[in-house]
């Protein structure tokens, strides 16, 4: 296999060059604004949702900085952009709340520009709501055309109208756009976009479109560039990384499997740890387990969304595995990869879920001994099949089931995490502890959080730390 052999599409090269021209043009507009204001204008990017969105926001920040804005954390800025999530309704509500508050800033600062992008904007009803009730918004775009941000900014500078540009679908991947990482030493790397799985509760396939894989050559090139720039840990991102490459034709040299790609990324000089997110349990291969087992650079962590432990609910969710199949997979992973931490996502309150179904979920949590589990209350998403299912579960019953599950999740996580007590392991130091500045915070290869006394100079490096005190899902430690 020679992954450096494939050709990049010329069309896409042209597109990134085109956007660089818009960046140059936008610089002129920001320069004018700077003169008018008598200071450097500020920009704030607010991100909701998953790592994909976080990565997209790093691209937005880069463009804003390149054209002359100074980044700020405050939404009282000259440019505010909300990169939205719509996986659950509460994310939608939070954006609208923040947007409402932002309008008062705009009243005081008429130069202010407000933009919204991301998954929520791929839903027509959400865009209509903004058009109707949030007239002060300047720019709306979606997930498929985020690469056009510089161009859209120029259009917005040239017009007083609300600019709306939403695409239903795309088969394009635009490479080589500017990006500014939040952390100098670690980075997300998109390996694919979209999802073909259509779990019946999930809006993602509708707002992120069909699966499109980046070529291995482009991914490796990006990792090499990141490594040269000081990145030591990368996280390969996709909605279901197991289907990486399956959208390439069978005779395409780009068609390598996800485990092969993972292995290739670990060969990049300077990259010391590789994570990935998220594999779907229905197609996690033996090949992947073998590659992880043989390669110590691959993080000892698998996030394996369970969603439900009831085979009947899983069927209605279109997850395409049973309770037994999930537990068999966990057993296989635990046997071949005894040092891997397993985490999961669980939804409570899916239509038709009974307390007996939740008992099944609790049973899986106990048997799988998850290191951590993210528990969500089912949120009805308009347009998904489950939104039309009868027997939505009453709120009080959902709450009771949720609390019951959460208790077991916390007990299990503590018991599983406690097992690391006393070991010494390598921590990638991420920053100064938010609550106690004498402490540093970092993560083990298995993703466990560790706090330990140390000097700021260690941020971004790997340090051996002895885990001395377990506090549920995190550890206190001492540098050795
Ligand atoms: N309601 C609640 N949780 C959801 N998730 C996805 N869609 C929904 C929904 N409609 C959860 C799943 C997924 C995680 C990212 O979000 O558990 O794994
Ligand atoms: Fe949503 Fe299922 Fe795709 Fe994950 S695999 S993004 S839960 S449809």
TrEMBL record:
Family of this protein: Belongs to the methylthiotransferase family. MiaB subfamily.
Protein name as it appears in the record: tRNA-2-methylthio-N(6)-dimethylallyladenosine synthase
InterPro entries noted in UniProt: Elp3/MiaA/NifB-like_rSAM, Methylthiotransferase, Methylthiotransferase_CS, Methylthiotransferase_N, Methylthiotransferase_N_sf, MiaB_methiolase, rSAM, rSAM_horseshoe
Pfam families: Radical_SAM (PF04055), TRAM (PF01938), UPF0004 (PF00919)
NCBIfam families in UniProt: miaB-methiolase (TIGR01574), MiaB/RimO family radical SAM methylthiotransferase (TIGR00089)
Its biological purpose: Catalyzes the methylthiolation of N6-(dimethylallyl)adenosine (i(6)A), leading to the formation of 2-methylthio-N6-(dimethylallyl)adenosine (ms(2)i(6)A) at position 37 in tRNAs that read codons beginning with uridine.
Transmembrane annotation, as ranges: none
Subcellular location: Cytoplasm
A Gene Ontology molecular function term of the record: tRNA-2-methylthio-N(6)-dimethylallyladenosine(37) synthase activity
Binding site for [4Fe-4S] cluster 1: 50, 85, 119
Organism superkingdom: Bacteria
One term under GO cellular component: cytosol
PANTHER family: CDK5 REGULATORY SUBUNIT-ASSOCIATED PROTEIN 1 (PTHR43020), MITOCHONDRIAL TRNA METHYLTHIOTRANSFERASE CDK5RAP1 (PTHR43020:SF2)
Catalytic reaction list: N(6)-dimethylallyladenosine(37) in tRNA + (sulfur carrier)-SH + AH2 + 2 S-adenosyl-L-methionine = 2-methylsulfanyl-N(6)-dimethylallyladenosine(37) in tRNA + (sulfur carrier)-H + 5'-deoxyadenosine + L-methionine + A + S-adenosyl-L-homocysteine + 2 H(+)
Domain MTTase N-terminal: 41-158
Subunit relationships: Monomer.
CDD domains (UniProt xref): Radical_SAM
Occurrences of domain TRAM (ranges): 418-480
Protein EC: 2.8.4.3
Keywords, ordered alphabetically: 4Fe-4S, Cytoplasm, Iron, Iron-sulfur, Metal-binding, S-adenosyl-L-methionine, Transferase, tRNA processing
Organism encoding this protein: Butyrivibrio hungatei
Swiss-Prot/TrEMBL cofactor(s): [4Fe-4S] cluster
Binding site for [4Fe-4S] cluster 2: 195, 199, 202
Gene field: miaB
């Amino acid at each position: 296999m020679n992954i450096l052999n494939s050709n990049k599409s010329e069309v896409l090269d042209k597109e990134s060059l085109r956007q660089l021209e818009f960046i140059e043009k936008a610089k002129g507009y920001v320069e004018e604004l700077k003169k008018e204001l008598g200071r450097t204008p500020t920009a704030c990017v607010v991100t909701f949702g998953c790592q994909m969105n976080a990565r997209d926001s790093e691209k937005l920040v880069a463009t804003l900085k390149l054209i002359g804005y100074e980044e700020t954390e405050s939404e009282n800025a000259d440019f505010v952009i909300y990169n939205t999530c719509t996986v659950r309704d509460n994310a939608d509500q939070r954006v609208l709340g923040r947007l409402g508050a932002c309008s008062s800033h705009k009243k005081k600062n008429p130069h202010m520009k407000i933009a919204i992008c991301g998954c929520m904007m791929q839903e027509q009803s959400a865009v209509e709501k903004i058009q109707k009730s949030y007239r002060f918004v300047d720019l709306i775009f979606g997930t498929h055309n985020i690469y056009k941000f510089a161009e859209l900014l120029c259009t917005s500078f040239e017009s007083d109208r609300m600019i709306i540009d939403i695409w239903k679908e795309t088969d394009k991947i635009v490479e080589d756009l500017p990006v500014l990482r939040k952390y100098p030493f670690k980075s997300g790397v998109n390996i694919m976009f979209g999802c073909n799985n259509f779990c019946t509760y999930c809006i993602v396939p509708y707002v992120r479109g069909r699966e499109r894989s980046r070529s291995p050559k482009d991914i490796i090139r990006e990792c090499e560039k990141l490594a040269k720039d000081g990145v030591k840990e990368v996280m390969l991102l996709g909605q279901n990384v197991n289907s990486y490459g399956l959208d390439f034709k069978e005779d395409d040299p780009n068609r390598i499997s996800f485990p092969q790609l993972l292995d290739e990324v670990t060969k990049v000089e300077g990259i010391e740890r590789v994570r990935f997110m998220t594999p779907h349990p229905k197609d996690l291969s033996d090949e992947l387990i073998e590659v992880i087992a043989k390669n110590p650079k691959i993080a000892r962590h698998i996030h394996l969304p369970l969603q439900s432990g009831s085979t009947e609910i899983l069927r209605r969710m279109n997850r395409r595995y049973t309770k037994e199949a999930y537990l068999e997979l966990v057993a296989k992973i635990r046997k071949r990869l005894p040092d891997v931490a397993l985490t999961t996502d669980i939804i409570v309150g899916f239509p038709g879920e009974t307390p007996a179904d939740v008992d099944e979920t609790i049973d899986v949590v106990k048997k799988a001994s998850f290191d951590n589990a993210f528990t969500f209350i089912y949120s009805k998403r308009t347009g998904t099949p489950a939104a039309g299912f009868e027997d939505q579960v009453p709120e009080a019953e959902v709450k009771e089931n949720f609390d019951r599950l959460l208790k077991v999740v916390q007990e299990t996580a503590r018991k599983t995490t406690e097992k690391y007590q006393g070991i010494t392991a390598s921590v990638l130091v991420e920053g100064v502890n938010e609550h106690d500045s004498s402490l540093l915070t970092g993560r083990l290869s298995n993703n466990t959080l560790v706090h330990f006394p140390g000097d700021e100079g260690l941020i971004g490096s790997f340090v051996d730390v002895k885990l001395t005190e377990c506090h549920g899902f995190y550890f206190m430690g001492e540098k050795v």
